[in-house]
Design goal:
With 535 residues, the chain is α/β, with parallel strands linked by helices. Helices cover 35% and strands 22% of the residues. Helix 4 crosses helix 5. The structure holds glutamine. The site of glutamine (GLN) has 10 residues, from strand 19.
Length: 535
């Protein structure tokens, strides 16, 4: 067993400073120095997981191999580190309380009064240490969601205080991410909000060891000196994090600022050899110097909030870079699409992706878009609901099954080509009850998906309740739709395609969750290539 060291990342002043990206960038730097590292996110909300949250609230729900519905930051962790995360990497207050209350009901507390301290804080500490059991890690980075000063963050800060003390100074480091606002009228950067948020942390007994300062302008030595003085750190522990064009620049930026260096020094770990970012920088070089551009439409109903499709837009960046293609995404609201305007909205696009989703809002627009795409030979990738809508479109317009639908949208449809899975029929709880996580799929040789993956057996992550209705299988295949991938055990349809179309592929699973910087997803690669070829 290794002597695992811990890094805690807290946030001050405002939310949305990019704690997840800073944590992932630090982890990347440590990883390419040869340390084994993983990252965890603790979310101070009462939902058990973000699975039941509206994407407008919290962005995309990210799904792990083991079927956990998690915060979108876990997507960044996987994309940066190229290693899978699991349920243990994301814990919410809801889950913490649920475990403690379950124990209380079992009588595990032997008649004691159950309290925030020590019982909730003990459970938080247990969850932090538990992650160490999922692998042999040198360093575990734990990101505390929310902002210091929030009532709901207090038990987490207290748990960090206790852990630091239990682990000893050499085994734990606290990084505080903060904002240095710029007042245009005064032409000045302001440190006061940071001083206050550090003071607030200190009142809870936690001294930040490192300050990472988000800023729109270089902060300079004067401000660093001032922050160091007021916040009880050395000047070298004040790290500037200036705005960059792409999140993938942040590891280099943090390296230049010495973040990994100061963290390793405090943890008494070797600072040589230097990080080897060769592969990472090769990805960046291609990403920034594309030879071609493709215009791809993304049809979805949450397009106002692009975080709702984070993994998809990142997967396009990975795939695009691998082919030296700049993917220019056009966000199209599915509710804005009609029979009349589908042509004007989609004309000129080199390809269209129809996004995952739930519920009836905007689905008719998606179906209209797919009809136009299919009839006009525009490359198409349909993900989950996007695939289901492609099946419905084909049923209505090729098979002539009027009013064909998914029973999610129309319970009484005469042609339920997409239907609730048998095991889903008696489920009433909404949280964590979908078909979730990694499932096997067998691909048929000679198909577009087989060509993309170049292998027969794949495993991909799922998050849905409805499925292709196999009662209609014959009708579809006879009319020219190819069922190119099925689950080998359940025979459920996983992928569909139309062979006499330049590129028309729908998948019931979510390929976007598995795309990383170093492993662009084969389906996204095949799709952007097809978009370029048919351009
Ligand atoms: N709403 C559909 C289902 O539950 C699709 C889900 C999705 O796109 N993730 O089957």
């Amino acid at each position: 067993m290794k002597n695992t060291k811990y890094v805690f990342v807290t946030g001050g002043v405002t939310s949305s400073l990019g704690k997840g990206i800073i944590a992932a960038s630090l982890a990347k730097l440590l990883q390419v120095r040869g340390y084994s590292v993983t990252i965890q996110k603790l979310d101070p909300y009462i939902n058990i997981d973000p699975g039941t949250l509206n994407p407008y609230e919290h962005g995309e729900c990210y799904v792990t191999n083991d079927g956990a519905e998690t915060d979108l930051d876990l997507g960044h962790y996987e994309r940066f580190l190229n290693i899978p995360t699991s349920q243990a990497n994301n814990v919410t207050t809801g889950r913490i309380y649920q475990s403690v209350i379950d124990k209380e009901r079992r009588g595990d507390f032997l008649g004691k009064t159950v309290q925030v301290i020590p019982h909730i804080t003990d459970e938080i500490k247990r969850r932090i240490r538990l992650l160490g059991n999922t692998g042999d890690y040198d360093i575990i980075i734990t990101e505390i969601g929310g902002t210091v000063g929030d009532i709901e963050s207090l038990p987490y800060i207290e748990a960090v205080r206790q852990l630091e003390w239990e682990l000893g100074r050499e085994n734990a480091v606290v990084i505080h991410l903060t904002l240095i606002p710029y007042l245009a009228a005064a032409g000045e950067l302001k440190t006061k909000p940071t001083q206050h948020s550090v003071k607030m942390l200190m009142q809870s007994g936690v001294n930040p060891d490192v300050l990472v300062c988000r800023t729109e302008h270089p902060i300079g030595d004067d401000i660093k000196r001032k922050l160091a003085l007021f916040c009880n750190v050395q000047q070298e522990d004040v790290i500037e994090s200036i705005d960059v064009n792409t999140i993938y620049d942040v590891p280099n930026l943090m390296y230049k600022e010495g973040l990994d260096q100061v963290v390793l020094k405090k943890l008494k770990l070797e600072t040589s050899p230097k990080p080897n970012l060769t592969e990472w920088n090769e990805f960046l070089r291609k990403h920034k110097n594309p030879k071609h551009t493709v215009e791809i439409g993304l049809v979805g109903k949450y397009v106002e909030l692009q975080d709702a499709y984070k993994s998809i837009s990142e997967a396009f960046i990975h795939a695009g870079s691998s082919q030296e293609i700049n993917v220019n995404l056009h966000w199209i609201h599915s509710e804005s699409l009609t029979v009349e305007n589908a042509e004007s909205k989609l004309k000129g696009l080199d390809g269209v992706l129809v996004a995952p989703g739930f519920g009836v809002r905007g689905v008719e627009g998606k179906i209209k878009a797919i009809q136009y795409i299919r009839e006009n030979n525009i490359p198409f990738l349909g993900i989950c609901l996007g695939m289901q809508m492609a099946v419905i479109e084909f049923a209505r317009n090729v098979l002539g099954l009027e009013d064909a639908n998914s029973t999610e949208m129309d319970k009484k449809t005469p042609h339920p080509v997409i239907n609730l899975m048998e095991e889903q029929k008696n489920i009433s709880d909404m949280g964590g009850t979908m078909r979730l996580g990694a499932w096997d799929c067998k691909l048929e040789k000679g198909t577009k998906v087989y060509e993309a993956y170049n292998t027969e057996m794949i495993s991909e992550r799922h998050r849905h309740r409805y499925e292709f209705n196999n009662d209609y299988l014959d009708k579809f295949t006879k009319a020219g739709m190819k069922i190119s991938g099925i689950n080998p055990e359940t025979k459920l349809v996983e992928t569909i395609e139309i062979p006499n179309h330049p590129y028309f592929v729908g998948v019931q699973y979510h390929p976007e969750y598995k795309s990383t910087v170093l492993n662009p997803h084969p389906l996204f690669v095949a799709f952007v290539k097809a978009c370029l070829e048919t351009k």
